[in-house]
Amino acid sequence: MAIGGMALAGCVSGAALVPTPRQAQTAPRGAVSVPIGPPVSTATPARAVNAPPKDVVDPGFRRPPSGLSDRISQLWRTFPGKTGIAVQRIDGEWSFSERGGELFPQQSVSKLWVAMTVLDAVDQGKLSLDRQVDIGPNDLTLFHQPLAARVRAEGKVTMSVRDLIETAITHSDNTANDSLLRTVGGPEAVRRFIAKKDLGSIRFGPGERLLQSATAGLSWQQSYSQGRAFQQARAALPDSTRKAAREAYLANPMDGAAPAAIASALTRLARGALLSPESTQYLMGVMSRTHSGPKRLKAGLPSGWEFMHKTGTGQDYKGETAGYNDIGIATAPDGTRYAIVVMLGDTSASIPARMALMQAVSGAVAEFHGK
C-alpha cells in the first residue's frame, strides 16, 4: 500500500486542504435512501445465548473503524476532478460516501445491471442460461469487442446466454453485452428491473452504440462498428461539437449512477436480496473472474483478500476521460465483506494516478479492517 500512497501523493495539489476530523456517518451524504435488508454475516456463526453483543466482539460492525472515513475523505479531497467514493460494510450496519448521491457516468459498470436483469428472468423461468443467441455483423458494436473478430471470420457466431454473461462481465465485451440486452428485452427491461428492485439512483442508457455515439457528438451508423471507423468519424467532427456533446453527457449522464446506490446494490446482491441463491452465487463467481482493471481497486488489497468487481471506462478527450470506474466486493481473510465504489466522473489526472487513488481507497479499507 505504501507504493500506491506514494504514487498518489505525487499527483495531488500541495494546496489541498487536509480535512478536519468529523464523525463517521452511518448513511451516505446526499444519497437516496435505499432499503438493503438486515445484515447477514456468512463469516461467523450465530451468537450464542448470553454471548457479548456483536458490536462488542466486532467493533466495526455498527460503525466504521476509527480513522477510515477521514482517510478516504482526505483522498477524495486531494484528488483532482469530480470523484465519487462509497464504502459499505456488507455484513454490518454502516456506510459512508463522498459525493455519494450525485450521478456519475457508469460506462461498462452498467453491464452488471444487464447481467442481473438476465438472471432475474432466469429466476422467473422466462429465460434459460442455455438459450442460444445468434450474433451477426449487424449486431457488432464498437470499442472493446473481442467477439467481433470471430463474427467477421465466421459470418455468424452462436453463443449461450451463460457464455455471453461470462464474456460481457469478465472481458467487458460490448457486443456480448448488447446481445444479452437484446435477448432480455432491451434497455426498458433493465430499467424495469432497477425500478422493481428499488435500486435508487441508477440509470440505464440506450445501449452501447447509441450511448457512445451520443457522447462523442455523432449519430450511430452500423458502419462505425468496422475497424476504426468510429474513431475516424469522431476525429472529423469540429472540436466544438465534441466538447458540447461531452459536457452535456457529464452534466446529465444518461447512464449515470450514484456511488452510494451502487454500494447498496452490491450489498443487497451479496446478501442474496436481489437474485435467487443460485443466480447470486453464479454472478458473484463471474465477477471474481473479471480480467479488466487489475491495477485498480484489486491491486490495493493485500494478500489473502478476495475481490469481485466490474470496471467502466469512458471516452478520452484531450487527456480527460468521461468515466473511469471500479466497483466491487472485497472479502477479508476472516470473511468480512465490503462494497467499494470509486467513480471518476471527469479528471485530468494521469491513468497511473487514477489507479493509485483506487488502490489507496481499497488499501485503506483493508488497513482499518478489524480496528
List keywords for this structure.
371 residues, beta-lactamase, Beta-lactam_cat, alpha+beta, EC 3.5.2.6, Beta-lactamase, 11 strands, 2 domains, 15% strand, Beta-lactam/transpept-like, five-stranded antiparallel sheet, two-stranded antiparallel ribbon
Short overview:
By secondary structure, this protein is of the alpha+beta class. Helix 1 crosses helix 14, helix 3 runs antiparallel to helix 14 and helix 6 crosses helix 7.
Structural overview:
This is beta-lactamase. Pfam families: Beta-lactamase2. The longest helix is centred in the last third of the chain and has 18 residues, at 351-368. This protein has 371 residues and is of the alpha+beta class. The protein is globular, with a radius of gyration of 21 Å. Residues 1-49 have low confidence and may be disordered. The protein has a 5-stranded antiparallel beta sheet with strand order 2-1-11-10-7, sandwiched between helices. Strands 3-6 form a two-stranded antiparallel sheet. The chain is built from 14 helices and 11 strands. Helix 3 runs antiparallel to helix 14 (351-368) and helix 6 (161-170) packs across helix 7. It has 2 domains: 2-6 and 16-43 and 53-106 and 258-368, DD-peptidase/beta-lactamase superfamily (Beta-lactamase); 110-248, DD-peptidase/beta-lactamase superfamily (Beta-lactamase), CATH 3.40.710.10.
